[in-house]
Amino acid sequence: MTIERLQSFYGLTRVPFGRDLAPGMLHRHNSHAEAVARITWCIDQRALGVITGEVGAGKTVALRAALSTLDISRHTTIYLGNPAIGVRGIHHHIVTALGGVPRFHHATLVPQATDALATEHAERGRTPILVIDEAHLLDHDQLESLRMLTNHDMDSRSPFACLLVGQPTLRRKIKLGVLAALDQRIALRYAMPAMTAEETTSYLKHHLGLAPLTELRVRGSQINGQSMIGRATFPGHGGRRRHTPGSGRAGGSSGWCAPGDR
Ligand SMILES: Nc1ncnc2c1ncn2[C@@H]1O[C@H](COP(=O)(O)OP(=O)(O)OP(=O)(O)O)[C@@H](O)[C@H]1O
Ligand SMILES: [Mg+2]
After folding, report:
1. Is position 77 within any domain?
2. Is there a single domain that holds both residue 52 and residue 179?
3. Residue 216 parent element (H or E)
4. Distance between CA 108 and CA 125 in Å, rounded?
């Protein structure tokens, strides 16, 4: 069964709950708006921020939305999507992203990364934004090395903003006593809550509005797509549980039936 056949079967103009959403197509529920506002503040202050939330809470989407509002001539984003690259990997990535050739020895690579961040800010007039997604995968040494990077100019200011985005374990990891120095340096902490029941209804309507459908088939019946939203329940959620945006991801389990599954 091809995705095109599925789409035409349901009369969808695009795959619903897709990931390719432009910033203008996002649903503006409370936690999303809060996250975007706080990330923007953190960047403006060139501070260290920690955004956490359950899988699919909308962390990366909020990050993308906040970054899309920035003046690209005054900011340089250094995005690290997979932090499982060791301490050296982080410094290497920073230097490469800022147009340098990473030095071989770690002892010289660390000051090179620090200088590259400072130069980007002081000489090119751009604020570097170091974004580490899936930051709950960072190990102790990596978190310590990030703290060291923010030790600029005898710890009086930082030339860059740093955002750590990850699952709730990140928050717990940072709270450990051995990372107290990093913990007290964090200017922004935001734990994205799940959507309320009202927000979930509005979110579903929003996504179905982005992928207009002509009809929607549910087990045993075929009813108008828009009018069934209020009645939709999701297996395992009992219709009462709060939802995270990603729980409706394409490919996830839902009450919708596939062609031939009626
Ligand atoms: N504000 C929003 N408006 C519309 N769709 C959204 C919004 N937030 C999240 N989504 C949907 O939820 C999906 C998951 O969001 P996202 O990838 O940001 O979650 P996450 O918290 O980063 O999850 P993970 O922990 O797995 O990285 C997105 O692909 C998108 O379809
Ligand atoms: Mg994510």
Report:
1. yes
2. yes
3. strand 216-218
4. 25
The CA R_g of the chain, rounded to the nearest whole Å, is 22
Closest protein CA for atom 18 of ligand 1? 58
| pLDDT tens-place string over residues 150-201 | 876 666 678 999 999 999 999 999 988 778 889 999 999 999 999 999 999 9
57 Cβ inside 6 Å of ligand 1: yes
Query: Residue 254: inside a domain, yes or no?
Result: no
| Structural domain count of the chain | 2
User: Which pTM was predicted?
Assistant: 0.81
Output the CA 62–ligand 1 centroid distance in Å.
Answer: 8
Domain assignment of residue 65, given as a range = 30-192
21 lines ligand 1 (CB under 6 A): yes
With 0-12 / 13-18 / 19 or more C-beta atoms within 10 angstroms meaning exposed / middle / buried, residue 218 is middle
